Amino acid sequence: xNISVLMHIALAGVLLCALPSAEAFTLDIFGNANxxxxxxxxxxxxxxxxxxxxNNHTELADANYDGKIDEKDIEEIEHIIRGDxxxxxxxxxxxxxxxxxxxxxxxxxxxxxxxxxxxxxxxGPEILCVLGDANKIVAIVEEGKKRGEFADYVKDTPxxxxxxxxxxxxxxxxxxxxxxxxxxxxYSSQRKVLNDAxxxxxxxxxxxxxxxxxxxxxxxxxxxxxxxxxxxxDFEEEHLxxxxxxxxxxxxxxxxxxxxxxxxxxxxxPTSSVCRAVEPCGGxxxxxxLNSTSSIDPEEVISKNPQVILKMTSNSFISQCGxxxxxxxxxxxxxxxxxxxxxxxxxxxxxxxRIYIIxxxxxxxxPSIFNSYVAKWLHPELFEDMDPAAIHRExxxxxxxxxxxxxxxxxxxxxx
Length: 416
Prior knowledge:
Elements: H1 3-12, E1 15-16, H2 41-52, H3 71-82, E2 87-94, E3 102-110, E4 116-118, H4 123-130, E5 137-140, H5 151-154, H6 168-174, E6 178-181, H7 188-196, E7 200-203, H8 209-222, H9 226-247, E8 257-261, E9 267-268, H10 273-278, E10 284-285, E11 294-295, H11 298-304, E12 308-313, H12 329-339, H13 348-351, E13 355-359, H14 367-378, H15 388-400, E14 409-410
Helix pairs in contact: 2-3, 8-9, 9-14, 14-15
């Protein structure tokens, strides 16, 4: 067995301690021989060096993914640069909620992609809509039908189950070229069935700030929407960098202690958007030491005395929230319910009225919007000139062509 094949087998099972940061990433597409953030003539030059023995083999050098490095890979890179490749192999970072680390698994997709079953909850169909490829969506899960922001794009698209329970028979019948799904679930059994049917399963996350640039760029290459993908990334970086600059250098005593609660009452989820947002927005997560989804003892919250409580929700838990919410009555009721928990009247966050509820729809495929709401809550004086609702409105108008409405956060933030 040649070196390249051995390398791919080893890398497919490797466990990663960290994924690329939002600031720097490697374009995880085979053909990116020099392992930077694009595929261009520099990769041809680097690959020639591998063939000549002057450069070391790299993970993504096997452009046509046939298990060997040769002149055919140079030809394939040239096809990719021109945009007339017949297939494209990407590297996925798959990490189910139950796994401690991510594994890297390659998948080859036919090019150009003509049909996609967007089964990644609401995020999968939304990213296709904002990239301008809603017409390629041939199947969707139940959750996707509930998102008002892009409902008009998918109103006639057939449902094929839920995010975690797919109707495989119906999917095979529709026969999309690609199934686009979350990378936070184990779909290994579904992958085998899809592979046997000649359907590629592609797993990506678009809600994680640390890997946002990498995933969006990769999908932009797959769909030949690189410029649109760059626009999405530019939007995120502009607003996340703004927050980062404002909180940079804050002393610990100036950072509020925060209790981030997940969807279920008294539950902590370390990978949820609400937990991910605390530290980047200038707060101290009082349960930062918990590395897995955990039930929280209400007495422990009292003893840790958070200065801010952030509650995460969705319309599965509070029906009147998000884009289609007619009012904030249910959000207000939940806030009061939290404040009335036994003994919580002694908590600073409750005494000072600093309990906030935010829907995961505010995070969706634009973490910067979610973080803008959170940063404003944690540091209202520091972000006096930042208007999260205006940022949210700008994104919806620019990328989906709809106006902001409904209730994504509560108490409502007044526009500056």
